[in-house]
Amino acid sequence: MILPGYVVTMAGYNGWQNRQLEAALDAVPDAVLRADRGAFFGSILGTLNHLLWGDLMWMSRFAPERAMRPEGGIADSPGLCEAYGDWRAARRSLDGEIEEWAAGLDAAALAGPLNWFSGALGRDVTKPMALCVVHMFNHQTHHRGQVHAMLTKEGLKAPVSDLFAMPEDV
Predict the structure, then answer these.
(1) Domain map of the chain by residue range?
(2) pLDDT (tens digit, 9 = 90+) per residue, 96-121?
(3) Where would I find the H helices in the chain?
(4) Rounded CA separation 114/159 (Å)
(5) Which CATH code fits 4-160?
């Protein structure tokens, strides 16, 4: 389905996108980050927190030695980090872990199954590891797109998100 090079590329893309979001959000007032915008996870910060929560959840399954399973379920995810600065630090740390994990991944690991208990489904699940890895990266892109839309609607500049525009040195 996918090869390790894809995972390395997408891990780099994830980090690049999140660093661009940080640059766009660092000067945004807290009230703007917390304002309920009618998005599925409410606010910009709520959506960023959900994305961080999801990445922590997937990484706790892919590489439990690299990431702890986050507390709570999906409904709790918007409140993962109370402050933007806490989100920023946690995001940076996890992005580094994702990139290191991706660099050490081999084709055999991607070809195997992943088994876990899904709180969302309320049952044990077994799916191909590669499918789950693709899902994690798609989930990231989906929710960053929501943040992009919220920033644009607020009249703020949103970062470039095109994969082909990613610098070569990322």
Answers:
(1) 4-160
(2) 999 999 999 999 999 999 999 999 99
(3) 4-25, 30-34, 44-62, 84-104, 107-111, 129-153
(4) 34
(5) 1.20.120.450
